[in-house]
Structures are given as structure tokens and as C-alpha cells.
Amino acid sequence: MAKEQIKQEKPLQTEKEPSVKKKNKEKPSLEVEPKSGKERKDLEKRVQKEKPSIRQVFKRTKKSVKEQTNENIAIQEIENILSQDMDSYYDSMSPDKKNEFKNKGEKTAVKIKGILAKAKIAVNKIINLIEGWLLVIPGVNKYFLEQEAKIKTQKILDLAKKKKNN
User: Fold this and answer.
1) What is the pTM of this model?
2) What are the domain boundaries of the chain?
């Protein structure tokens, strides 16, 4: 009886295998060889069109690296403008506030860079971003905050104008 049970189990396993094969047959195979020489040439042409050459890939990466460095330089310049005359306030902050001030300043610089990249520059948005960043400073005067935001915005706009002229 044990042999009969083993024989019965084996056909069950083989019955499962064809169902798996049917599922695999439904998916298109990537290794289909063209039948004629003309089909093979057409396939090779399509592959060449889809696959970029090494030079094209190199040019793309080269451009993207240049663009990234230009963006990083622009963000760094904006951060420098934002950090001007902030040393005394930064030194008087607690370590937690320093970290918050630094992180919010970096985020503000990236947002300002995005605003400057648009065709129409929204000056009020830049002022609001800078004011929001300066609010991190504990005990800051409202009028000082507005004045600093306007001064820094004007410097950033001057920087943007210089970049557009070049």
C-alpha cells in the first residue's frame, strides 16, 4: 500500500507542473529569435535606437554633474547671503535652536532657489520665507525681522539679476 500511495503522490506533483508551465507560456519570452534575416536586421535597428551609445550616456552624466554643481553653487550663494550678519544671533542660541536655525535656513535657501528659477519671481514669497526662518531666533524684534528680510531679499534679487545677465 505504501508504494501505491507514493505512485499516487507523484502524478499529483506532475499535474501541478503543467499548470505552472501554462502560466509561463502566457508571458512573452524575451529570447525570441526572428525567423528571417530581415526581421533580425529590424530587431537590431530597434535595439540600437533604444540603447544609447557610451558617448550619449557620458554627455548626459556630464551635463547633470554641471547642472548639479551650478545648483549647489547657487544654493551656497543664497545661504551666504542669508547668513550675513547673523553670527552674533547664532552664537547666543542654544544647541537645539542652532540646529533648527541651520536646518530651516538650508530649507529656505532651497525654496528660494526654486522661486528664482521661475520666470516670474514672487518677492513676497521670498520675504515670507526669510521672515519665517528669522522667527527661529528667540526674542527677535518684529521690525528688525521685517528689515532684515527685505535687505536679504534685495541682495538675493541682485544675485539673481547678475546670473541672468551673465
Assistant:
1) 0.58
2) 54-165
